[in-house]
Amino acid sequence: MSATARPYHHGNLREALLVAGERALGTTGAANLSLRELAREVGVSHAAPRRHFADRQALLDALALNGFEQLGAQLDAALAGAGEDFTTRILALARAYVGFATTRPALIELMFASKHEAGAPPELAQAADRAFAAALAVVADGQAAGAVVPGDPERLAKIAFALLQGLVAIANNDMLDDQPLDALRDAAVERLLLGFAPR
């Protein structure tokens, strides 16, 4: 094999491409992601990625799907250590979501953009639903315990998500004006809980 030749095989090429692909999202953006460049980065032939991803869009869809799966796992883990108190559980979810979305801004943007694109694989919407299922259940459980106003729990969960996603957008666009993200996040959750409390 020549010094410039690249092997076709890789120990775990799919995973390596996903890791390199997410890294590239933050530098080149989704529109400029190149399977050929990723192949070069992970040290395989330019044809090798096609064993796992038919084209760039297939890789982007896989990145988004993987992102929702990882997010869901982080939200579930946050709840597992939060106990049964509604306030504590909501705060744990907020901290986990904001942490994920602000440390991986390019991925979170891809996840939600991909989910709503025409022709998106149905697996993306299903993965998103699974990722947020526990959060929705927390709202419903809060209602059952009398800690949350009556009403459609999905609508209330969307209101909570809108608040957090707005904070994420401000943080990811460097608009915090030196205010600590953690303090703003916790203050936002405090206001949210006041709004959710039964009158």
Give an overview in words.
The chain has 199 residues and is mainly alpha-helical. It folds into 2 domains: 1-53, Arc Repressor Mutant, subunit A (Orthogonal Bundle); 54-196, Tetracycline Repressor, domain 2, CATH 1.10.357. 69% of the residues lie in helices and 0% in strands. The protein has 8 helices and no strands. It has helices spanning 13-28, 35-42, 56-80, 86-103, 105-115, 122-144, 153-172, 181-196. Helix 4 (86-103) runs antiparallel to helix 6 (122-144). 31% of the residues are buried.
Counting structural domains, the number is 2
Strand content: under 5%
Number of E-type strands: 0
Radius of gyration: 20 Å
In CATH terms, the superfamily of the largest domain is Tetracycline Repressor, domain 2
CATH class of the largest domain: Mainly Alpha
**Largest sheet geometry:** none
- Poorly predicted spans: 1-8
Question: What is the name of the CATH topology of the largest domain?
Answer: Tetracycline Repressor, domain 2
Q: Structural class of the secondary structure composition? A: mainly alpha
Measured as a percent range, the helix fraction is: 55-70%
Measured between the Cα atoms of the first and last residue, the distance is 74 Å
Mean pLDDT: 92
CATH architecture of the largest domain: Orthogonal Bundle
Basic shape: elongated
Compressed to H and E, one letter per element, the order equals HHHHHHHH
Number of helices: 8
Q: What's the multimeric state?
A: single chain
